[in-house]
Structures are given as structure tokens and as C-alpha cells.
Design a protein that fits this description.
Blueprint: E1 10-15, H1 30-35, E2 45-47, E3 53-59, E4 74-80, E5 90-91, E6 98-104, E7 110-116, H2 118-121, E8 131-137, H3 146-161, E9 166-172, E10 182-188, E11 191-192, E12 199-205, H4 209-212, E13 219-220, E14 234-238, H5 239-246, E15 255-259, E16 278-286, E17 299-303, E18 311-318, H6 322-336, E19 345-347, H7 348-391, H8 393-401, H9 406-444, H10 451-477, H11 481-485
Parallel strand pairs: 12-17, 14-16
Antiparallel strand pairs: 1-7, 2-3, 3-4, 4-5, 6-7, 8-18, 8-19, 9-18, 10-11, 10-12, 10-15, 13-16, 14-17, 15-16
């Protein structure tokens, strides 16, 4: 199983927010369950082995479907189970990440759960398992009309589904995790979308796309075989599109006007005139997926029958491995047209990982640079403090000759080193927060206030300063005063 370097899916282990009482544990009853606030569906509650604590993932969304929240953020919450009523809920996580599936340790004192960053959480909306994608371009000489292209892909789908082990087949103008074409959104419900009109990502798909590739729809219905024919112009938008361009209320039944791109002027041809916009009706809303290297963008899905482009991506899912699926797709295509060749074949897992690689590579490089900076900072801090202490060896000898205790001398230098560390942290922590905010959206896509990482860095540097001050001072206090005074 491939794991991206910058995978932000981590299992967080936290100490319980309060020590479990030594009193006898109360019995967890059905009344206690009913008293707990509504928790994220399908996850249940996790009760500690002592019966004292309960943990669950609580969603921020209300009971109604909210188009403004593409995927409700969930957080892990703990409550105490008192004898009379549960205690107040206490959230263990905040922010835009999703925290799911809490599990208590056997002793009931620690809690583990899955925390998932929202950026990579979008990829969960794509069914990548056992799916391969390959490009097919139908020759214009043989397939000149949209009807011929629709007939070819209908035969291809029927042949593929008849192959043992093949469970689904669909086509799309571009697969997920890759760049798609754009069209100009000229109007929404007859009103100008904006001035100038925005360009939105458009993907042409078959009806089976929303159960073969995308994990279903969140609202409305998928395309039918009639959609895309005259009188049945339809579109499906993603949640990000509804949030940006449709505002509050249900998007179902709203009307869009999309203008296809026009050919630009070149040395070989003149520029074409403006293409009239196409009016479509929204019939469904799909979950957000990444149709590029970045976050979710507004997407409009159009039915394949509306225009039937010659070049599409064939996406096939089946058991038996990718080699079996590719062989079945090639044989089915050649059975219809022996001269047809398939393009480069990649699994959807490969496409997903390739789309993540820029962010993962950047995160990996910054992690290496950060680690190197930490080592250099530690070496420099140790050298500076150790040198400063060594220069005061004669002072240590005089103090020892006058009757000072070794522990008092060591404590003196430890306090001096502590002030150096405090001064450095006073400058370094605000600077790290400022730089983290600048890099948040472009590199890490995580919270700018990573308390765990900041605490670890402080602990490392404080330990280095402690060792750098204690070791030379301890060595100097063990010297004879006459010997220490001769050291230059």
C-alpha cells in the first residue's frame, strides 16, 4: 500500500484530560447514552474500561444538509459519566481537520483516534481501489458523429461488464486528480454570474461515473440515458460550486448558462466567433474531489450524450489485478475496432499519488531542512554555552577556593543558560508562527500552531542548553583550584 511522504492521516494518542477517580466506577446505562449529544453517524461511542469516560466524534453540521459545509468537520469529544447525569462535553480537537473513531486504551487512561486533514480528506470521496484509467481517442474518420461515438462506448461498456471480474466501467473527459477543461459561466438563473464571467472546471461523464468513481451524490440524482439529449439538458455540480455560485437553498432545479471555449486565432486558421451559451438544469450535487493538484474547485459535470467528445478517459474497476483489467479493456476495444489503441494505463491510486507528490515533496524537503536547522541550532547552542562556561573556569576555581558549594556553582551557570534559552525562544517562537502562517497554504496545509512540534523543539533546545552548561561546570568544579587558575 502506497503511503505519501506528506500524508496527513495520523493516529493521535492523547492522555486523558483528567485522572480517573479511584472511586467505584458507575454503571453505564441506556439513560447515559440518551443523555449524550448527537454523535457522528456510524461511529458509535467509545466507553472507557472503567465506565467513567465516554468519547465520540461529534459533527459540527446540523441535522439538515448544508451546502455551505462541503464535508462537516468532526471533532472528538469526551464526557464523564456521573451517577446522576453526564458531565459537560469537552472537545479534544479543533480546527478544520476531521477527527474520527476514538478508541480507549485497555486501562481507560489514554485515548487514540484518527485525525485527517481536510485537504487529503477530499480524496476519500474517490473510489480508487482496483480501478485503472486509460485514454481513448476515436478517429474522426470512423466516428464522425456523436451518435457513432456514443454507440461505440455503449458497446464497449457492455462487453467489459460481461467479462468475469469486471465490476464497473465508465468514461470521463478527464479522470480525477488531473487538470480538466473550463467553460465560461455566463449566467445563473438568468442573472449574470459576475463581471467578467468566471471560468469553471467542466468534466463530461457517463451516468455510471457517480457510482464507479465518485462515492455517490449528496443531493439529487445522477444522470440518466436521456440527459444530454434535446430537451433534457442537465448538469451536476459539486459542493464547492454550490457554495461559491448558488448561495443558500437547494441547488436542485437551478439553471446555468455555460459557454464552450472558442478556438483562438493561429497562423493556420482564423479565430471562431463566440459560441452561444448552453442552458442546463442542475439535477444533482456531488461531493468535492480534487480535479487538480490543489484543493477542491467549483466543478460542473455534463452528460456525455450532450456532445460526446472523441477523446475520453476509460475508467474500469475489477478484481484480479490491474493487468487483468487492462487486458480485458484492450480486448473489448479491439473486438469493436481492431485498429484502436489504448493510451497510457494508470491506476487511480497512481494518479492520486502523483497529484500529491508536489506537496509531499515540498513537505519532505522542508522537513529535512527543519531537521538540519535543529541540529545546527543544537550544535551552535552547545558550543556557545560550553565555551562561555569554560572561559569562566578560573572564576569557578576562585569560588571553590572561597568555600562555595559545587551545586551552587553549577546552579549559577544553569540559570545563566536558562536566560539564554528564554531569550532565544522569545524571538524564535513568534518568528516560527509567522513563517508557518506564510507556508500554511502552499506547503504544509496544516495548522500554523502545531503545539506538539513546538513543544518538542523547545524541549530539545532546553536539553542541549542544560547539558552544555552542566558538563563543563561539573568538570571545572572537580579541578584543584591551583590547577584551574593556570588554565588560560
Amino acid at each position: 500500500m502506497h503511503r505519501p511522504i506528506a500524508s496527513l492521516l495520523t493516529v493521535v494518542s492523547l492522555s486523558c484530560v483528567a485522572t480517573v477517580s479511584a472511586q467505584p466506577a458507575p454503571i453505564f446505562t441506556s439513560e447515559d447514552v440518551l443523555a449524550v449529544r448527537t454523535f457522528a453517524g456510524g461511529q458509535g461511542v467509545a466507553v472507557s474500561s472503567t465506565g467513567r469516560w465516554v468519547a465520540y466524534a461529534l459533527t459540527d453540521a446540523n441535522d439538515e444538509w448544508n451546502v455551505q459545509e462541503p464535508r462537516p468537520t468532526s471533532h472528538v469529544v469526551v464526557q464523564t459519566l456521573g451517577a446522576d447525569r453526564p458531565g459537560a462535553p469537552r472537545a479534544l480537537t479543533t480546527g478544520v481537520s476531521h477527527s474520527l473513531f476514538p478508541v480507549w486504551s485497555p486501562d481507560g487512561r489514554r485515548l487514540a483516534f484518527i485525525r485527517e486533514d481536510k485537504f487529503y480528506g477530499l480524496d476519500r470521496n474517490v473510489q480508487t481501489a482496483d480501478a485503472v484509467a486509460t485514454f481513448i481517442r476515436l478517429p474522426a474518420q470512423k466516428y464522425a458523429t456523436p451518435e457513432q461515438r456514443v454507440a461505440f462506448h455503449t458497446q464497449l461498456r457492455d462487453r467489459l461488464l460481461a467479462v468475469p471480474g469486471i465490476t464497473a466501467s465508465t468514461i470521463a473527459s478527464t479522470p480525477p486528480f488531473t487538470f480538466a477543461g473550463r467553460r465560461r459561466l455566463t449566467a445563473v438563473d438568468g442573472r449574470l454570474a459576475s463581471d467578467p464571467p468566471p471560468d469553471v472546471v467542466t468534466v463530461v461523464v457517463e451516468p455510471a461515473y457517480f457510482h464507479t468513481v465518485v462515492r455517490g451524490l449528496v443531493l439529487g440524482e445522477s444522470f440518466s440515458e436521456l440527459h444530454g439529449t434535446p430537451g433534457h439538458e442537465a448538469a451536476i455540480v459539486n459542493q464547492r460550486f454550490a457554495e461559491v455560485y448558488l448561495g443558500a437553498g437547494s441547488p436542485i432545479g437551478r439553471h446555468l448558462e455555460l459557454r464552450p471555449p472558442t478556438a483562438q486565432r493561429t497562423y493556420l486558421r482564423e479565430a471562431e466567433g463566440p459560441t452561444p451559451p448552453v442552458r442546463v438544469t442542475i439535477v444533482g450535487v456531488s461531493p468535492d474531489i480534487r480535479q487538480s493538484l490543489g484543493d477542491a474547485v467549483p466543478i460542473v459535470y455534463l452528460p456525455y450524450r450532450a456532445e460526446a467528445p472523441a477523446g475520453v478517459t476509460l475508467i474500469v474497476r475489477g478484481s484480479g489485478g490491474s493487468a487483468h483489467v487492462v487486458s480485458a479493456a484492450r480486448e473489448a476495444a479491439n473486438a469493436i475496432d481492431p485498429d484502436l489503441a489504448l493510451g497510457v494505463v494508470r491506476t487511480l491510486d497512481e494518479l492520486r499519488d502523483r497529484s500529491r507528490s508536489p506537496a509531499a515533496g515540498s513537505a519532505s524537503q522542508f522537513a529535512k531542512i527543519g531537521g538540519l536547522a535543529l541540529v545546527l541550532a543544537g550544535v551552535g547552542l552547545y558550543s556557545a554555552i560550553a565555551y562561555a562556561v569554560r572561559r569562566r573556569t578560573q572564576e569557578i576555581a576562585i569560588r571553590m577556593a572561597l568555600g562555595a558549594q559545587a551545586t551552587h556553582v553549577r546552579w549559577l551557570f544553569l540559570k545563566t543558560s536558562a536566560w539564554v534559552v528564554v531569550g532565544g525562544l522569545a524571538v524564535g517562537l513568534p518568528a516560527s508562527l509567522a513563517v508557518g502562517r506564510l507556508l500554511q497554504n502552499n506547503v504544509f496545509r496544516t495548522s500554523t500552531r502545531d503545539l506538539v512540534m513546538l513543544s518538542a523543539m523547545v524541549a530539545v533546545l532546553a536539553t542541549v542548553a542544560l547539558v552544555a552548561s552542566i558538563i563543563p561546570a561539573r568538570r571545572a568544579t572537580r579541578l584543584e583550584p591551583t590547577t584551574a587558575l593556570r588554565i588560560e
